[in-house]
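Support request from a user on the community tier.

User writes: "When I paste my structure tokens into the form, the page sometimes reloads and wipes my input. The last time it worked, I copied everything first. Here is what I submitted, just in case something in the input itself triggers the reload:"
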């Protein structure tokens, strides 16, 4: 998360910029977009798993922000939570509009390791983790992305997804459990190979 968006100073700046955006100040919009674009892109990319689609999601989200700025209620939600909820909803909508891919159409990840008994490099471990995260159900993937990739607290992530803190904790618990099981199976396959 950008240093400018963290803490009460970031919240205060976002509030001031949003007040100017409601009055149609394009300079304030540009500054707010610059403050939140990187995190929004990372969040969208985690959900749609495609850079081009993620960029479209972020552009659509900023367009919605501009059009509906007056709908944000500063007393009900922090700006970042409200905006990341827009990004999340746009990404999920885009994902649902896609034509579902046949399982046969999905490329198998390449395995450059010399053999199953060889130790995986850091990059291969990262690819295995990314693949495992990609297998998670949509809401669990979003929860993991908000908390671990974007550094939001459980409460902030729950607010961004529009769910209770208990639901967020449950999503994270189930996601972590699935990831542990899948990665443990991968590890035992490599050791037993």
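"...and here is what came back when it finally went through:"
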């Amino acid at each position: 998360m950008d240093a400018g968006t963290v803490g009460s100073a970031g919240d205060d700046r976002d509030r001031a910029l949003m007040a100017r955006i409601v009055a149609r100040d394009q300079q304030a919009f540009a500054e707010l977009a610059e403050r939140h674009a990187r995190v929004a892109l990372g969040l969208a990319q985690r959900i749609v798993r495609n850079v081009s689609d993620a960029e479209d999601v972020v552009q659509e989200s900023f367009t919605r922000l501009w059009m509906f700025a007056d709908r944000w209620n500063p007393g009900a939600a922090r700006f970042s939570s409200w905006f990341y909820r827009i990004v999340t909803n746009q990404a999920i909508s885009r994902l649902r509009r896609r034509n579902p891919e046949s399982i046969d159409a999905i490329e198998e990840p390449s395995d450059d390791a010399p053999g199953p008994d060889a130790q995986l490099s850091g990059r291969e471990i990262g690819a295995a983790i990314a693949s495992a995260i990609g297998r998670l159900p949509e809401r669990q993937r979003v929860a993991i992305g908000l908390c671990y990739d974007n550094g939001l607290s459980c409460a902030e992530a729950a607010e961004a997804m529009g769910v209770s803190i208990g639901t967020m904790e449950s999503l994270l618990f189930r996601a972590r459990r699935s990831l542990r099981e899948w990665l443990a199976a991968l590890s035992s396959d490599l050791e037993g190979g």
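Agent notes: The reload is a front-end session timeout and is unrelated to the input. The chain has two domains: 1-98, 117-193. Residues 165-192 form the longest helix (28 residues). Escalated to web team.
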